[in-house]
Design brief:
Blueprint (H helix, E strand, L loop, with lengths): L1 H13 L8 E8 L9 E2 L1 H14 L3 E2 L8 E8 L6 E7 L1 H7 L3 H6 L3 E3 L8 E2 L6 E5 L6 H12 L5
Parallel strand pairs: 1-3, 1-4, 6-8
Antiparallel strand pairs: 1-2, 4-5, 5-8, 6-7
Helix pairs in contact: 2-5
Length: 157
């Protein structure tokens, strides 16, 4: 019983929390498989995500992953008829460790949203990853970033 309580307190103390002014490193890729080793950069989606982070004025944009508190990762399936998008927010350490394995990244999810109207966001795990899958003909990364801000930052009272 005593070990369980100590372990719980340790996990609570070391859990990642999103806070204003943290630095975010943005990565966007085009891929069609869970193996991300052959994925290509999508600079347009990366730019759109960065523009929205800047307009929200809550997080700083990191120039390198080493300067980041978390990574905002967007995966675009350009071969699907809907151009599906998946976004993840993950610690730099976890991103570097699992960057070629989408299934592992998703297994560490802290926040997820299925992108459907009326859906509820779910918080779980201890590694900061947000997962969103949306089917659209155009990139909706700006809306994803807005939803991210709304869900991870404290509400104003």
């Amino acid at each position: 019983m005593r070990i369980t309580i100590l372990m719980f307190l340790f996990l609570q103390q070391n859990a990642f929390r999103f806070q204003p002014e943290q630095a975010v490193y943005i990565v966007a890729l085009d891929a069609t498989r869970a193996d991300l080793g052959q994925a290509k950069l999508n600079l347009e989606v990366e730019r759109r995500a960065g523009d929205e982070f800047k307009s929200q004025k809550k997080f700083k944009i990191a120039k390198t992953i080493n300067d980041a508190d978390f990574v905002f990762f967007v995966l675009v399936d350009t071969e699907s008829s809907r151009n599906d998008e998946l976004a993840l927010a993950i610690t730099p350490k976890d991103y570097l460790e699992h960057r070629t394995d989408l299934l592992e990244l998703k297994n560490h999810a802290l926040w997820s949203d299925n992108g459907k109207v009326g859906a509820k966001n779910v918080l779980k795990g201890s590694a900061p990853i947000l997962a969103i899958t949306l089917g659209r003909t155009n990139s909706v990364v700006r809306d994803i970033v807005k939803g991210f801000h709304s869900d991870v930052l404290p509400k104003k009272k």
